[in-house]
Amino acid sequence: MELTLVIGSANQRLGDAVALILEPDRADPVVERFPDGELHVTLPHSLRGNDVYVLQSTGPPVDQQLMELLLLVDACRRGGAGRITTVIPYFGYARQDRRRAPGEAIAARVVADLLRAVRVDRVLVVDPHTPGLEAVFEMPLDALSAVPVLAAGLRPTLPTDAVVVAPDLGAVKRAESYAALLGLPMVIVRKRRISGTSVRAEEVVGAIDGRVPVIIDDMISTGATVCAAMQALLEHGARASVLVAATHGLFVGPAPQRLRELPIEHLVVTDSLPSAVGLPPSAEVVSIDRLLADAIRRLHDDQPLDDLVLFA
Q1: 5 versus 192: which is more confidently predicted?
Q2: How far, in whole angstroms, is CA 182 from its chain's centroid?
Q3: Is 3-145+289-308 in CATH node 3.10.180.10?
Q4: Which CATH architecture has domain 147-286?
């Protein structure tokens, strides 16, 4: 089967970078919006029997990007694609993977069911908020890790007295990966979420006194987690200088202002989402284009992804 890449509108620059590496057959979609707001997607390109990879992040505006992804897949299927893999660098709704109250929707499962309804054969994501996301999918899901890319971005400015910080218990495994790659010790901050934009750090486990914290996470949304972790670390004697790394830079709401007010020496995120505006001068964007291209090429050639997968 011929390898074909379909790039959605959510992150055209990343898609073009992946295409430049792979040099695949490209089926560029035409995405239009009717006056009433409806999306209209067409693929003026034959896909008969092809191995198709649809690249589309589902970041803000999440519902719009998700609907475009579903229509792109449906267009590919109706165009005769032999196999369809969705490449979703940032998977929206991953945080809603379980019920925390009676009557609460499990949005991650709803999205999984929608992808099944349009007959996706496989899903590729990068550093999902929930490592066990694949449990809600019926089709195979591979969670790639951008940790090596981000660790390489941190290394040039890494002081000798740095320590990797997991800002909550959910980030412990990811922090362990950073610590192993960078040869650093690790501490853990235990947090409690008050609301969608407010977090309180309650405890720091490990030695941080006089050291430079390297706060890592899968995403920065409003910046509340980074702020709460930094406050707790300073109270426990950390140096007033911090490095931050996260795969997905959403930077919504008060995030840009919050981050500019912190003593951040180096902030590293990937291009899983388009770059936000108003970030501190210390911000750097590193690309996951080669990670995605490598994974796509391996899947096309029926080769394993073991060394690319999250926490493999």
Answers
A1: 5
A2: 21
A3: no
A4: 3-Layer(aba) Sandwich (3.40)
Name, in order, each residue with C-beta under 8 angstroms of 230's C-beta and a sequence gap of 6 or more: 213, 215, 238, 242, 262, 263
What residue type is assigned to position 285 of the chain? V
At 198-251, the pLDDT tens digits run 566 668 889 999 999 999 999 999 998 899 899 889 988 999 999 999 999 999
| Cα 140–Cα 143–Cα 147 angle in degrees, nearest 5 | 165
Collect contacts of 112-117 with beta carbons under 8 A, ≥24 apart.
112/136, 112/137, 112/138, 114/66, 114/70, 115/70, 115/73, 115/86, 115/139
Catalytic site includes residue 191: yes
65, 174, 308 from 288: Cα distances, Å: 20, 17, 12
Query: Exactly one of 66, 123, 147, 191 is catalytic; which is it?
Result: 191
Q: Give, rounded to a whole angstrom, the gap between the first and last alpha carbons of the chain.
A: 28
Amino acid at 91: F
191, pLDDT greater than 90:
no
Calpha distance 236→69 (Å, rounded): 45
Query: Same fold for the domain at 3-145+289-308 and the one at 147-286?
Result: yes
CA angle 15, 18, 20 (to 5 degrees): 110
Instruction: Output the pTM of the full model.
Output: 0.93
Dihedral (CA of 259, 218, 201, 206) sign: negative
- List the domain boundaries for the chain: 3-145+289-308, 147-286
Q: Residue 268: left if φ>0, alpha if ψ -120 to 50, beta else—which one?
A: beta
